[in-house]
Design goal:
This protein is 71% helix and 0% strand. It has 15 helices and no strands. The protein is globular.
Length: 231
């Protein structure tokens, strides 16, 4: 039995049909087939296999939701080419796949910043979401990213705050908040951007800005940033 067949057999053994309805509750829909396996169970299983881009590519092409999540866990960022990134992104049908790729695989790739710009201009909802999930991934996981590089995301966020599609709107808000929680300098810039967005005459922009400002101006965030600055 080859590796792919063995994994498919294992995943079917791990299946929990009752969890599928919970996945749908959290907006994970559109999967050709879902087995109902939590990521907390997939992660230790993925470690048993280790990184393997060839196997990841084979898993991604399977019509099973959990195979695609396992593919993300097995993929090798150093050889995760731009062509593969485009293929996987164009084939995403749910927000959790987008966030997995944007957060775990792409932040340290040499094309990450360029793809943020490119994907932010795409029309398909999940391709556009990828731009903002990748912003968050860069902020959290790319320790080489400078404040100036991160600050450049704000003009994109301002430009795209009109988009009322649920999974775009929430990702734009997420990226804005994440920038503002990075340090006091970026916090100041993010608050200014949020104030500008708030003046845009769309329901989406007003929600994005109000929600972001609520968190960024909270005592919890300000106290943490000030403590970080004083270390």
């Amino acid at each position: 039995m080859n590796s792919l067949d063995l994994i498919l057999e294992d995943l079917h053994d791990m299946a929990d049909p009752e969890y599928v309805s919970k996945m749908e509750y959290f907006g994970i829909k559109g999967a050709p087939k879902a087995l109902g396996i939590k990521n907390t169970n997939l992660k230790p299983y993925a470690k048993e296999w280790g990184k393997d881009q060839l196997l990841a590519n084979q898993l991604w092409d399977q019509p099973i939701h959990e195979c695609k999540h396992l593919a993300i866990l097995l993929a090798e960022p150093k050889i995760f080419t731009e062509d593969i990134a485009e293929k996987w992104t164009s084939e995403c049908y749910s927000w959790d796949l987008v966030d997995g790729i944007g957060m775990k695989l792409l932040p340290k790739t040499p094309y990450a910043f360029r793809k943020v710009v490119e994907w932010s201009e795409r029309k398909p909802e999940y391709e556009k979401r990828m731009a903002f999930a990748l912003m968050v991934g860069i902020i959290i996981h790319n320790k080489q990213a400078t404040d100036d590089q991160i600050a450049q995301f704000l003009s994109i966020i301002e430009r795209e705050s009109w988009d009322e599609r649920n999974f775009v709107k929430k990702a734009v808000n997420w990226a804005l908040r994440q920038i503002g929680k990075k340090n006091l300098h970026l916090h100041s810039l993010a608050v200014k951007s949020a104030e500008k967005i708030k003046k845009q005459d769309t329901k989406s922009a007003k929600w994005i800005a109000s929600d972001a400002l609520r968190e960024l101006r909270s005592d919890k965030v300000l106290t943490r940033l000030e403590a970080k600055e004083n270390k």
